[in-house]
Amino acid sequence: MARPITPLPATFLPQRMVAAHQITLCVQTLNGLAVWLGVIDWREGLSILSLNLLIMFALVLCPRCRLLGPNFARLPNEDAAQGAVALTFDDGPDPTVTPLILDILERYDAHASFFCVGQKAARHPELIREILRRGHSVENHSDRHAPAFAAFGAGALLGDILAAQRVLSETGGQIPRYFRAPMGFRSPLLAGVLRRLDLTHVAWTRRGYDRILRDPHRVYQRLIQGLTPGDILLLHDTRSGKDTPPLALEVLPLLLDHLATQGLRAIALPPNMGIPHATANREPSLHS
């Protein structure tokens, strides 16, 4: 059984600041100073403030950037050198789709990481255990997959991610090491929350948009175009609608055949990415 999840206490504000915070603070300090000294007038200062905030918002919509905190979009160099490509699946587990994905992976002797939604995992705990039994990894994809996840405050982020972390670890007996934000949109406050939970954010190198596109060959082409060792690929082990067949079931065999012809192998995310943090013995308030 996995050990209890006990978040680290919140750190002082300067320790929680990521690169984007530091740049914004620097720009706004210089902006305010310039207005105060009369170098620019207040209207120009307001324009600079608005532009600065707009850039921060744009970073939220940038899944692979690192200005909002540690973020892996590729495998470590040692794994890439061995011809590894990481397969990741989001938004499951799904009682219909996930077992079929597992069967395809087993047929090809391939492995993957499943970023699971906590509430779905609670409804289908047997699927979490089956994913792990077949040699794959289970990672954290939030508890509710809320559309407004990137707009949550620090307390709401902690509560949501912690709820999923507890469900996944208690169900599978292994504590997830990685987190992926819903839709890849990250709050500027997320990095500090992940640090408290000893989680590392993982994005992707290329995604197939299998929940948006309707043509499996277009999805397949998006995944293999420019594919290189060390890439992290994103698909989904769930349906995009009740009447829409999951394209991953058609794309995955094509993708795995392509990897074989290129001498590449599909792996789950290795457990050694990122820098581990110490584990605290005290559980703080979810609103601290």
Automatic annotation (TrEMBL):
<dbReference type="InterPro" id="IPR050248">
    <property type="entry name" value="Polysacc_deacetylase_ArnD"/>
</dbReference>
<feature type="domain" description="NodB homology">
    <location>
        <begin position="83"/>
        <end position="267"/>
    </location>
</feature>
<dbReference type="InterPro" id="IPR002509">
    <property type="entry name" value="NODB_dom"/>
</dbReference>
<protein>
    <recommendedName>
        <fullName>NodB homology domain-containing protein</fullName>
    </recommendedName>
</protein>
<dbReference type="Pfam" id="PF01522">
    <property type="entry name" value="Polysacc_deac_1"/>
</dbReference>
<dbReference type="InterPro" id="IPR011330">
    <property type="entry name" value="Glyco_hydro/deAcase_b/a-brl"/>
</dbReference>
<dbReference type="GO" id="GO:0005975">
    <property type="term" value="P:carbohydrate metabolic process"/>
</dbReference>
<dbReference type="GO" id="GO:0016810">
    <property type="term" value="F:hydrolase activity, acting on carbon-nitrogen (but not peptide) bonds"/>
</dbReference>
